[in-house]
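Two proteins follow. First one:
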Amino acid sequence: MILVTGGAGFIGANFVLDWLFVGDHTSGIRRVLEAGRVGETYNIGGNNERSNLQVVHTLCALLDRLRPDPSGSYQRLIQFVTDRPGHDRRYAIDATKITTELGWRPAHPFESGLEQTVRWYLDHPSWVERITSGTYRQWMATHYDAQGRDA
């Protein structure tokens, strides 16, 4: 199982982010396009602050329920590694403006949005295989790894 860093280990266990289901993000963008004021900035947030470790534990519990592993809980696969110096420890978003001015709120609670995402990946194993294959990683390295380094 690939968890967080493509198999290299888990970093930033206590880092906190605001998690948002992709469908809610697109509906927020649509709301801004339809009703937002030109030149204004609207933060689209999920009001779902969780630490990375909380998210990983939730993912493991979902996988334990949706795709049980005979070897045991997916929790056993969590590995911690040393993080890079200076890594941001929190990404918080204040989405008050989009809520008060445009009436937009996320429609999916964190748990249901995460479950929909996990189910999508489980239902599309051939896509996951293509994305995690060496061929795709090589293509990404060729096209993106060196970008911006010579500037």
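Second one, unrelated to the first:
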Amino acid sequence: MVAITYDIEIPSSIPAAKMFKAVVLDADTLIPKIMPQAIKNVEILEGDGGVGTVKIIHFGEGSQYKCAKHRVDALDTENLTHSYTIVEGDALAGVLESITYHVKIVPTEDGGCICKNRSIYHTKGDVEISGESHFETDPFRNIHHKICICTNHNH
């Protein structure tokens, strides 16, 4: 298995706790409201939203994907971190075993924050992903980016 890491950072004028609430805690209901073309709805299959929770995400009509199942691996509301792993779905494109996301919202001195997102793509066997094609179409990386931007504009 090959692991490929991709990092993105988005600065924001929004306070870190407020951004974490939007991007992580309220994301299951907020994203379908502000970006229904990206995500139609989120269904909890097991758990209470905390570590170990398994969810299925149904993508909207604007997405090339239909659904993805993900598991919450870590959730720390004090340190504003969240990790989850996509374990099933067409977003894995038949070449990925899983995709793990680490989200961290870091407060800045000016009262805003930096939204940090690390995506780790775990390929099946020795499959190599060429270029940035999968990274550019990764629905979750793109949604994190868009929700940080939308939250900035609505602040």
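SUMMARY FIELD: The two ends are 42 Å apart (CA to CA). The longest helix spans residues 139-153.
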